[in-house]
Amino acid sequence: DLIPLLCRLPLLPPSAMMPLLSSTPSPAPDSHEEVATVFFVRRVLSSYADIHSRFGTKVVASALCLLLRDYANELSTVAVKGKQVSADNAGELRTRSTAKDRKVEYEVIPATAKVLELLAMTYKEEVERREKKDGDDEWDTDEGEDVDSDEEEGEEEGVGKKSPFAPASDFFGLLEELKYAEDGDIDIEDDDVKDDPINDVNVEADIVQTVKKYAAEHGDALASSQASLTSAAVNTIQQILEVQ
Asked: Which residues does the annotated region (Disordered) include (predicted)?
């Protein structure tokens, strides 16, 4: 819950949080992070996968877009964990004890590359969410027509008694709402969160605009960072750049 709160700060005008962090000592001096900017960026990027609520995703994704748009140069100087380095060494006999003691190693990449990877992942999720919702809406429309038709046939056949039970469509509608709530599309939040303007943010469109702007202004950096990304992230970024 703390990460979405921290990420909300750069979205408040004026965006003075990054300059403030860059002049503030790290709150965790033992972690070898000289300033709070490094601490903040690393914590956000490492914790992003643990954010599941719809509101939290919108807040953090919007903050990442802002960082990449306005603070790309600062982000490029922050080193973060990248892909896991393969621990298998050819010809080495591994026992259970050596496998247990082996430390997991990661590539070191600039934070800009990690932000691009997370935005690519979020974009793909947003597209899948939109397509699924469009498909469900279309199914609901067709199903509603069938239900209306069945009710009309029942009336024509003279079934005059009113059922004491609620229509099945009401029950399935409730299940559908609960399913969306479980998937994170509906947040059970307080009234302040429900009325928050961040709910109106189109994350998919924001990511497209941000990545295109970064590509136009930092084309060389984007090209070099692709070596640090997964093939899936590279393909998704290419899809983003091709969006009209």
From this structure: 127-165
